[in-house]
Automatic annotation (TrEMBL):
<feature type="transmembrane region" description="Helical">
    <location>
        <begin position="34"/>
        <end position="55"/>
    </location>
</feature>
<keyword id="KW-0812">Transmembrane</keyword>
<keyword id="KW-0472">Membrane</keyword>
<protein>
    <submittedName>
        <fullName>Small integral membrane protein 8</fullName>
    </submittedName>
</protein>
<keyword id="KW-1133">Transmembrane helix</keyword>
Length: 67
């Protein structure tokens, strides 16, 4: 026998009520949140490019000197 705290998780009528809702569940993010996330991704990529350029600059200059 299941406890009352767990039995509501397996209640079939509650699952059917959720399945037959007329309104679709729509989740959207705030435009400010999307803008901040876009700026952060762009800054992350820019920082990665600058860091890569800094780390590989000595290898590039030495390979050009050998040519």
């Amino acid at each position: 026998m299941t406890s009352p705290a767990v039995s509501h998780l397996f209640d079939r009528s509650r699952l059917e009520d959720v399945a037959h809702q007329d309104e679709p569940v729509v989740s959207s993010m705030n435009w400010r949140t999307m803008l901040v996330m876009g700026v952060l991704v762009f800054a992350y990529l820019l920082l990665g490019g600058v860091l890569f350029q800094f780390l590989e600059q000595s290898n590039e200059s030495s390979s050009h000197d050998g040519v």
